[in-house]
Amino acid sequence: MVFFKARPDWQRSSAQVTPEQIFWRRRRFIASLIGAGVGLAATSAGGCQRSKAMDGDLERTLGEPLAGVRRNSAFADAGREPTPQQYASSYNNYYEFGGSKNIWESAQALPTNPWALEVGGLVKNPATFDLDDLTQRFELEERIYRFRCVEAWAMVVPWIGFPMRALMAVVEPTAAAKYVHFTSYYDPAVTPGPSLGFARDLPWPYTEGLTVDEMANELAFFAVGVYGRTLPKQHGAPVRMVVPWKYGFKGAKSIVKIEFVAEQPATYWNTLAPNEYKFEANVEPDVPHPRWSQKKERLIGESTAMFSWEEQPTVIYNGYGEYVADLYA
Ligand SMILES: Nc1nc2c(c(=O)[nH]1)N[C@H]1C(S)=C(S)[C@@H](COP(=O)(O)O)O[C@H]1N2
Ligand SMILES: [Mo]
Fold first, then answer.
1. What is the rounded distance in angstroms from the CA atom of residue 314 to the CA atom of residue 299?
2. Whose CA is nearest to atom 21 of ligand 1?
């Protein structure tokens, strides 16, 4: 496993970016000084950034404050401003609670306390982690990551959590472990899924997978918080995966089980539509989805209408190539 320090693609020298990119970067920098960016920098790590008042009902879904979390300086700048929380926390994909983006209220039915995260399979030390283990046993840090959904919308999110490899160090995968299978919470009485006829045949529970080497990469992260607080249920409380160089669907929410295995596991979207959702699912602008191009993305914002959001070019590995490209060489 190679762990190397590197700058993501958007932090390289200006010689490598076009004048147009510099223009937009400077404009955004100036905007951040006079706008909400200063608010973000001046508050404690991950303080909520708001460009306008948040809906009171939405605000009640946000978690408990996580105090004293240090921001990892390597991930303090994603080259784009963090997405204001009222957008990120009210525009979600969480199929267990419905097929629309507007599931934040129905997701409040998710029971998160107590929680048991079972880790086993090909490991030396199988273990079950409860809620306190997740927020206290592992040293928490904040990382501002770009996030890219396969549907071509994007955002920038200040996650709080711990590197996946910190958990690997505790359970110690054996040499036979080549893949990791992650399982989300599922209870048909609580998580009805989309209210469509085909919903009966969906391959619940939602699962995802990585190679062991991907899980050991410096970027791979378990989030237990966001915007300075514990995760709201709509983001996958109490613990979800964040793998920022891959499409968003790889980041399973509300994880109850992690199993180290020898063979590539079957996963939710890859089982449903293997030609559209690959197991690897790295962000690759030149590899179109069968039904749309991946060359551009739109940053979620004010309106729910995607065409009105700011369009940006998609970057290979979502800009994290210097961390992950050698995994695929
Ligand atoms: N269990 C579960 N995890 C999931 C999903 C889901 O439907 N169920 N959707 C995925 C998809 S497609 C995306 S884009 C992200 C969205 O994360 P967010 O709502 O926190 O932005 O969650 C991913 N994790
Ligand atoms: Mo997604």
1. 11
2. 92
Which amino acid, 163? Answer: P
Enumerate residues 6+ apart whose C-beta is below 8 A from 73: none
What residues are neighbours of ligand 2 (ion), with CB under 5 Å?
93, 149, 248-249
Report residue 127 CA to chain centroid gap: 24
- Domain with 112, as residue range(s), is 3-328
Label residues 211-245 b or e (16+ Cβ within 10 Å = b): bbebbbbbbbbbbbbbbbbbbbbbbbbbbbbbbbb
Average pLDDT, the chain: 87
Q: How confident is the model at residue 194 (pLDDT cuts 50, 70, 90)?
A: confident
Q: How many residues does the chain have?
A: 329
| CB 253 near ligand 1, within 6 Å | yes
Distances (CA, A) of 164 to 41, 65, 83, 182, 268: 26, 22, 24, 12, 21
Question: How many separate domains does the chain show?
Answer: 1
Average pLDDT of span 230-237: 98
Q: How many CB atoms lie within 10 A of CB 325?
A: 15
Q: What is the CATH number of the domain that holds 20?
A: 3.90.420.10
Rounded distance between C-alpha atoms, residue 229 and residue 62, angstroms: 7
Q: How confident is the model at residue 41 (pLDDT cuts 50, 70, 90)?
A: very low
